[in-house]
Recover the amino acids of this structure.
């Protein structure tokens, strides 16, 4: 990098900082905070304000609709953002007060120390790296450990408020009465709260203690706004970042992350495999209000120059510590790829498609030894609990096509992940389980059932699954179908897929499309499970649609800009947004308008009630 | 229209004719025909040719993959197309030979005759309108009538060959052995064939006779290539056309139809509501190789100047005959919107959203009389059977939002549609049933179950359903999720939804996206039900993907152009299409490449078989 390039990058970051939260604001929305039991516990929420409904009888108020907000400080127009400084360390006091961690005088990993001292990467380095924190000797600082001791941490209270989204209050507010009606859910044996009042810090604690949910929250990521991943909470989504083959600039990576947050990703996985992943990761974590996940074996492999056989436990261990001290919140670890399972993939149509899985398979075969992640699993747990990094136990043998779904290789590995879950839980380390991939519709349910039974209801985290292989270019959709279904069946987090899947690297528009697709799939799953209050936003939007409140319809959408631009493509005039008709039918011929007449007529005649009665009594003709 | 504009339109049509089938060809594909029992029975099929696989042991042939082809003559590069002339009347000899129809000396409908003589629309008129055909007095010319008499029509043989897609032959071809493997389906009590050999003309006849399937094929649409809609066949999709509020030119409408066929729509509904719908419809039908459906009440309403109360049975009847003699293959008729059901919608969140439903509701209330479509249903059946127009019994009370799903209004109407199905079947008239709309995931299954039981397994034809209301701009996806599920449960045809749904009129790109979304949803349903051979294309594409045959991956895709352009956005070089790596991982770090090494290693050691055995025997360590 030339001096000029460095200066340019620095200016870009400053530019981005200046207006990032202004540019990313949503229309007619306000960032509010739910106050917790202590002053520094403030949970962000977005409220969407609506226009009044104008009727013959006058104005009718449409109350504001709260929506879950993943934007962090970027979603708060009053926040001063400085990407070079990083986000404020919200959780620092919580960590300090627990008094079970030490601030280390220097980084524990050899690689981390080397990079910190490397003059060649000085220009890329984040300037305000704080000293790392680690559990005191003999201490266990995981959320699961606290939960099992009956301790409700601020993190648990935070997620309780966040999940509840003040719906408990709204249930007691007459304005929301009709809007809060919803269909009964079907939850396949999940223990969902049935009323917002039940979403309490104690409920969160119990779910964490039982291993049914996790709060990925590394003690070295104090900037994090805690969130929860579990079958009995809102379904979450993950978006991926990664500079891969094409090198992108720091600014680009940070901007891509903020862009993902804006559209609503709940966690971000940094899957970079380039040269400066250590430095890029620091920038990302310091600016991330959501949990960051990684696949440490990718970086370990980089360190061997790409030679899988040269991987060693020591090298991997150093990488885990390096990343844990940067603040990574969850690690994908492919410890279930056992030597004896590898040949089970030989007759598959597409073999091993997981990168981590194929690296470990290659290592196992080359050394004719058991996977070192499996044999060193207890030592990995020791690291995880010293920083509270959560496991995302990787499905290295997941199917890469419809044909290979649900085969012996896949389910053998899943059973081993169950064994490792039990082991991790003996260390009070938080665990989620990764799942496929490519599965035809009728075989998705079996994936969920097997996971629940073999992995003791640890949260399931799946990639799609894609329900057919024949639509490259549309795999956000083929996988969104599978994702909505498996979310309904009980999957806690859905890893997004973009339209470029299998074809190329996603650009910003692909990321947006991928995230919105997964937001709608996760929401469809929440509705189907019967999450309390899930239908509020649907009801509000549909009421707005029926009443021709076009602007409210846009505002309540997952993607207001796209909704508005699609509307404007046909009827761009500003007047059309308040008109009592739309482009589909025109002003004269409008079913919604006719319906309003039907409704007025029925009301005038008192017919609605009578008709229900008559039909129920089997009356033949309405008189 | 000025003379200049007319001349311009005419030139456009000529231009479009000239190269329409060349422009719309698919890469590396060939149009072939399956020869039936008579020379004029030739069933179109597209074959996709693949490259060889290059291995250390030499070349391995990848056989051509047959795919269902809706393109008609437009998919045959050797066909001479003249849009002003219309397609050749393939079925004419079949109709003549049956000897049960008369060629009428003039149009039977008053409106048809008026338009034919109207000098103001002369310039828009299709030049080669043939004289209409009608059943001889006392004759019934429906496919259901023939089927129930044990007659296998050429139409039935055609669809048997079309559905079977020569998979019976491929099952006996060693090259396809591995590619034809597929997962067991779950079909919820459907009577699907379990082997391609079972897809016979006699099987088709039985399904038609039982009312479980229909072949929409008006005797005045001899250009039609017959297709079948039924739960025990491939799931079909419908795409909509319509010039609505914005007037589009004839050329544009015809081009949009051909565009839809190219992407694979199985039927087209012409939902136009403009001034020249009679003339436009003629152009569309004469150039349509697929069934055309309409909602005749739309045109009837136009004739009243948009005043629902002024609709009369006589006006509607004339419209039915007008359209039947043009060749419309199925009519949406909202005969289940009964007067007593209308007030059931008054307390809904979004009332009545079906245009046809709201027109009929308004009429019923204004006159305080029962729906004239219901009271004149037998007379409608008399018209249907004289031309073999199929019923698509409209769901005028379908829910317009999640909140209103599965309510009393909806299911009351559905039960009435069942009653009407039984009545239509007494006339041997073919019937399908329209379904919703907006339904949360957990309540979709009930829609299918209710339909099967109340409507005696008549084919179900649904719009989506959308599984959430919060994603305008992405409703092709919210509805594609519902569509894949309800298709799996047994729905026979899925009406597409474009990204512009609820917002504006779809442009060509929206139509493409909507159709491909529904093609993949229908295919996911075929896989899930276990339709024989459905997985062939998935397997072929995945094998191509695994072997880095990029071009074959594109060719086998539902949308080869998009797949290729997405690939090229990252790696545009021509060499990258034959490279053994892709942009996601780069040349060094490729899971597929590593897998190939694992496979070679395992093969060399004879490990695959041993490992399966060891794992099955519960061996602890592979030696």
């Amino acid at each position: 990098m030339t001096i000029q390039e460095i200066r340019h990058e620095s200016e870009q970051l400053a530019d981005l900082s200046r207006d990032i939260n202004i540019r990313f604001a949503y229309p007619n929305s306000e960032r509010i905070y739910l106050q917790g039991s202590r002053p520094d516990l403030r949970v962000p929420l977005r409220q969407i304000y609506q226009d009044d409904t104008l009727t013959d009888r006058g104005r009718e108020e449409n109350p504001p609709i709260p929506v879950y907000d993943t934007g962090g400080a970027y979603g708060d127009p009053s926040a001063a953002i400085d990407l070079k400084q990083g986000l404020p360390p919200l959780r620092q006091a919580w960590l300090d007060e627990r008094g079970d961690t030490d601030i280390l005088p220097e980084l524990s990993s050899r690689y981390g120390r080397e990079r910190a001292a490397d003059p060649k990467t000085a220009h890329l380095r984040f300037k305000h790296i704080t000293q790392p924190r680690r559990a005191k000797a003999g201490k266990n600082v995981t959320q699961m450990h606290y939960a099992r001791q009956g301790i409700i941490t601020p993190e648990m209270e935070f997620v309780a408020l966040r999940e509840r989204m003040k719906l408990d209050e709204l249930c007691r507010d007459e304005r929301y009465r009709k809007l809060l009606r919803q269909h009964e859910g079907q939850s396949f044996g999940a223990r969902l709260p049935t009323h917002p009042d039940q979403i309490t810090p104690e409920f969160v604690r119990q779910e964490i203690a039982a291993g049914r949910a996790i709060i990925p929250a590394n003690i070295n990521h104090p900037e994090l706004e805690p969130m929860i991943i579990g079958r009995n909470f809102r379904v979450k989504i993950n978006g991926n970042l990664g500079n891969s083959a094409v090198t992108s600039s720091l600014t680009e990576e940070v901007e891509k992350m903020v862009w993902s947050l804006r559209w609503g990703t709940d966690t971000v996985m940094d899957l970079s495999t380039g040269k400066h992943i250590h430095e890029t990761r620091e920038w990302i974590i310091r600016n991330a209000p959501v949990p960051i996940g990684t696949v440490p074996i990718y970086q370990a492999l980089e360190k061997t120059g790409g030679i899988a056989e040269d991987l060693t436990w020591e090298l991997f261990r150093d990488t885990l510590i390096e990343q844990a001290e940067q603040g990574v919140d969850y690690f994908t670890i492919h410890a279930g790829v056992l030597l004896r399972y590898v040949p089970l993939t030989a007759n598959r149509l597409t073999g091993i498609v997981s990168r981590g899985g194929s690296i470990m398979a290659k290592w196992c075969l080359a050394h004719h030894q058991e996977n070192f992640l499996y044999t060193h699993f207890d030592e990995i747990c020791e690291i995880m609990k010293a920083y509270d990094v959560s496991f995302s136990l990787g499905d290295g043998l997941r199917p890469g096509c419809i044909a290979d779904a649900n085969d012996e290789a896949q389910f053998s590995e899943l059973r081993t992940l169950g064994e490792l879950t039990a082991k991790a839980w003996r260390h009070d380390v938080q665990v989620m389980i990764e799942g496929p991939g490519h599965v035809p519709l009728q075989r998705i349910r079996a994936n969920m059932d097997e996971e629940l039974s073999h992995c003791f209801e640890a949260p399931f985290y799946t990639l799609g699954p894609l329900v057919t292989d024949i639509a490259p270019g549309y795999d956000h959709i083929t996988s969104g179908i599978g994702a909505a279904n498996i979310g309904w069946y009980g999957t806690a987090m859905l890893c997004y897929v973009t339209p470029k899947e299998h074809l190329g690297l996603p650009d910003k528009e692909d990321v947006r499309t991928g995230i919105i697709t997964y937001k709608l799939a996760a929401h469809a799953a929440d509705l189907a499970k019967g999450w309390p209050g899930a239908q509020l936003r649907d009801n509000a939007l549909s009421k707005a649609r029926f009443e021709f409140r076009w602007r409210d319809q846009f505002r309540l959408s997952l993607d207001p800009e796209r909704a508005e631009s699609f509307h404007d493509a046909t009827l761009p005039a500003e007047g059309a947004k308040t008109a009592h008709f739309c482009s589909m039918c025109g002003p004269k011929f409008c079913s919604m308008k006719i319906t309003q007449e039907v409704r007025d007529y029925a009301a005038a005649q008192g017919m609605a009630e009578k008709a229900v009665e008559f039909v129920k009594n089997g009356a033949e003709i309405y008189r």
